[in-house]
Structures are given as C-alpha cells and as structure tokens.
C-alpha cells in the first residue's frame, strides 16, 4: 500500500482562514454602515426639498398668471390648497402674503411656502407688476 506523504506546501484554504476573512468583512461592513445610512437620509431630504421647491415655483408661476389687479392676487392668495402626498411625504403648499402697492401701476409682493410633513417650510417670494387695485 502506498502512503501519501503530506506536503508542507499544500494549497487550499482552511476553514479557519475562511471564518477570519468573513469576520474581517463583517467588521468593514459595520464600519461603513453609518455612512451609508447618512447618505440615504441626505438623499431623501434633498429629494423632498427639491419637490417642495418645485411646488413653490409652480405656485409663483400661478400668481404670475393672475397679475392684472391686486384684487385678483388677493383672491388667488385666499384659495385653500390641498396637500400633495408623495411616497409617504406630505407637501402642503400655502399662499402666505400679498402686499399691494400704495399707488398704481406698481409691484405687489407675493410670498408662497410649502411645508414638508408639517415642518421645514420652503419659501419663495417674488414681486409682480399690477396695473390697478381692482
């Protein structure tokens, strides 16, 4: 019978080496996990702010469409706007203030804001030309 002589330079990976490699990878993954969570939160916040900014711009464009008279702008500002849900986030646009000029023609100051889930308002302000009071 032939006996196999063990070679000092056997190739292959032992079970202990595999366990050590997995352990080191787990430590590396745990070290990177807080960064990954932070990146995901920042991405979500930035997406919400971008959506809210778009809604503010949409409301300001809507105000520009009714700028013939200050009375029309005040009526526009008095409208109640419904909330806009989007993937678990609720955006609530509101038309804050209209400051009419003291003499006509002049500029009216229009302010619009959008709150994200009841907090973090995004505000937009513009001046609009108005020809008359009513």
What do you see in this structure?
- The structure is a single chain.
- By secondary structure, this protein is an alpha+beta fold.
- It has helices at 15-64, 70-78; strands spanning 84-86, 89-99, 106-116, 119-130.
- It starts with 14 loop residues before the first helix and ends with a strand.
Q: How are the SSEs ordered, and which strands pair?
A:
Elements: H1 15-64, H2 70-78, E1 84-86, E2 89-99, E3 106-116, E4 119-130
Antiparallel strand pairs: 1-2, 2-3, 3-4
In short:
By secondary structure, the protein is of the alpha+beta class.
Count every beta strand, where a strand is a DSSP E run of 2 or more residues: 4
**First-residue to last-residue Cα separation:** 113 Å
Number of helices: 2
| Helix content, binned percent | 40-55%
Q: In order across it, which strands form the biggest sheet?
A: 1-2-3-4
Give the C-alpha Rg: 31 Å
- Parts with pLDDT < 50 across at least 5 consecutive residues: none
Overall average residue pLDDT: 88
Shape: rod-shaped
Q: Return the string of H and E elements.
A: HHEEEE
């Amino acid at each position: 019978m032939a006996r196999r002589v063990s070679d000092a330079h056997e190739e292959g990976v032992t079970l202990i080496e595999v366990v050590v490699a997995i352990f080191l990878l787990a430590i590396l993954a745990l070290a990177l996990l807080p960064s990954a969570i932070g990146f995901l939160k920042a991405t979500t916040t930035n997406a919400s702010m971008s959506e809210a900014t778009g809604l503010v711009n949409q409301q300001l464009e809507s105000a520009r469409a009714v700028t013939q008279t200050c009375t029309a702008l005040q009526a526009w500002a008095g409208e109640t706007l419904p909330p806009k849900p989007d993937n678990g986030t609720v955006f609530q646009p509101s038309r804050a203030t209209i400051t009419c000029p003291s003499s006509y023609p002049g500029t009216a100051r229009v302010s619009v804001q959008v709150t994200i889930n009841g907090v973090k308002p995004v505000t937009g302000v513009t001046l609009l030309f108005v020809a008359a009071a009513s």
